[in-house]
Amino acid sequence: MRALIIYESVFGNTHTVAEAIAEGLRTAGEATLVPAADAEGSLLASVDVDLLIIGGPTHGHGLPALYTRKPEPRTAASAYGLPQAAPGASEESDLRSVLDALPVGSHVEPQGIAVKHQVAAAAFDTRRSGPVLFTGRTSRAIAKRLRQRGYASAARPASFLVDGQDQLLAGEIDRAVQWGKSLAAHGS
């Protein structure tokens, strides 16, 4: 099984979760991690994997956007005593660009008759601990966009929780490894 994990991370939590998911996936094959900022059109056009996983932080109840990143992440982190932004974090929402540039997940015969192969996909996010009504959940928006692009759902969207200081809660990294293993089992 070949898996590709594309993620966006501001404070490093989503990156940490993506690495843990990859660890779980590697029990059944290869897993490559790519930050959304590095997911260029050529990479996306040549997506040749069995499983595509996309994840990002929850901002303003959903996908990160330019307006949810003001003030700029590094300034916001230091101003509120929060962790510094992760290396490569940018003001712009790379995740939205990636989702818009994804190739269609199923390959259809020229006459539009039959699906030859449908790529499986899964979505995850990092978000504050609390009811979804109050925190939002980026993974649902990612999963919806993946379905619209023709990807088959490999699992329900997953959320990995952070506390009020933007630190992953105890046990979330282990839970991410287990989620990766469950995805690997689905793909086998």
Give structural attributes.
single chain; 188 residues; alpha/beta; Rossmann fold; two-stranded antiparallel sheet; globular
Describe the structure.
Helix 1 (13-25) links the parallel strand 1 and strand 2 (30-35). The chain has a single domain (2-187), classed as 3-Layer(aba) Sandwich (Rossmann fold), CATH 3.40.50. The longest helix is centred in the last third of the chain and has 16 residues, at 172-187. By secondary structure, the protein is an alpha/beta fold. The chain is built from seven helices and eight strands, in the order E-H-E-H-E-H-H-E-E-E-H-H-E-E-H. Strands 1, 2, 3, 6, 7 and 8 form a six-stranded parallel beta sheet that branches.
Concise summary:
The protein is an alpha/beta fold and 188 residues long.
Q: How many helical stretches?
A: 7
Structural class: alpha/beta
CATH level-3 fold name? Rossmann fold
Instruction: Report the sheet with the most strands, covering strand number, pairing sense and barrel closure.
Output: 6 strands, parallel
Q: Helicity, in percent? A: 25-40%
CATH class: Alpha Beta
